Amino acid sequence: MSGVAIVTGAGSGIGRATALRLAADGYSVMCNDINGARAAIAADEIKAAGGQAAAIGGDVSREADVAALYAATLETFGACTLLVNNAGHVHQAKFVDLAPADFDRMFAVHVRGTFLCTRAVLPAMLAAGKGAIVNVASQLGQIGGVELSHYCGAKAAIIGMTKSLAREISKQGVRVNAVAPGPINTPLAMSLSPEWRKAKAAELPLGRFGEPEDIAATIAFLASDQAAIYVGQTLGPNSGDVML
Ligand SMILES: NC(=O)c1ccc[n+]([C@@H]2O[C@H](COP(=O)([O-])OP(=O)(O)OC[C@H]3O[C@@H](n4cnc5c(N)ncnc54)[C@H](O)[C@@H]3O)[C@@H](O)[C@H]2O)c1
């Protein structure tokens, strides 16, 4: 597999694993993260393993940062053929305690960030008549979660946006899909309360959380030609937590 991939939030967890996996599959990978130093470490790991990578810091919710990400990718590797909208954070609060600023930030990073990055890469993909976009949602966007209204709302919005864009552009050669992971062993999941994690692990049919590499494999599949007829789908690597 060859191509040029942008992975947002590539400095940690699922994004890092995805960047490494795509590079191993033959992609040139631009690693974005709001923590530029961590993005650079991921790119260095890829290069140390013989892959092609570069890094740029930036906040996906900021138009100027996304423009810089797109420009750096074009200049370094050429036109982006795969975008993985992965950057995100989690925050727990009872609905009545949810501050508007926390709500706005959640939607800015996840929904606006996905919109801005997609809008940046899409014209060139459409002009070329090929490309793939994989959005990282969450199973919590499908089933909801206690004290996670803003997170779940944002993830459900990403699923809706994925379906809508897929309906709009698939005939032009660009495929858009989403992945809705269950609980995965990353720093993000570790930031949720120990009570939540314990209860969640106990109820999983598989009996354990997934690993970032499990999600990277799903993303690599959705990006590949093997997924040629996957359009607007939301795949669920989730330890059996949600069965649709
Ligand atoms: N870990 C899970 O259980 C789980 C489950 C379902 C979905 N997800 C989703 O997977 C994605 C990756 O999460 P993770 O678990 O790997 O978390 P993580 O915290 O390990 O990694 C997220 C990365 O995104 C970066 N980031 C955050 N905000 C950003 C922004 N505005 N611009 C650019 N980069 C930003 C962070 O700095 C971090 O490096 C997120 O969208 C998350 O919601 C995670």
SSE blueprint and pairings:
Blueprint: E1 3-7, H1 13-24, E2 27-33, H2 36-48, E3 52-57, H3 63-77, E4 82-85, H4 100-128, E5 131-136, H5 140-143, H6 149-169, E6 174-179, H7 187-190, H8 194-203, H9 212-223, E7 234-235
Parallel strand pairs: 1-2, 1-4, 2-3, 4-5, 5-6, 6-7
Detailed description of the structure:
The protein is built from nine helices and seven strands, in the order E-H-E-H-E-H-E-H-E-H-H-E-H-H-H-E. It is an alpha/beta fold. It has a single domain, classed as Rossmann fold, CATH 3.40.50.720. Helix 1 (about 15-25) links the parallel strand 1 (about 5) and strand 2. Helix 1 (about 15-25) packs parallel to helix 2 and helix 1 (about 15-25) packs across helix 9. Bound molecules: nicotinamide-adenine-dinucleotide. Nicotinamide-adenine-dinucleotide binds near residues 14, 89 and 188.
**Content-based structural category:** alpha/beta
Calculate the mean pLDDT score and round it. 97
Helix percent band: 40-55%
List the total number of helices. 9
Supply the CATH architecture: 3-Layer(aba) Sandwich
What's a concise summary of this model?
This protein has 244 residues and is of the alpha/beta class. Helices cover 49% and strands 15% of the residues.
Quickly list its features.
single chain, 244 residues, alpha/beta, Rossmann fold, seven-stranded parallel beta sheet, 7 strands, binds nicotinamide-adenine-dinucleotide
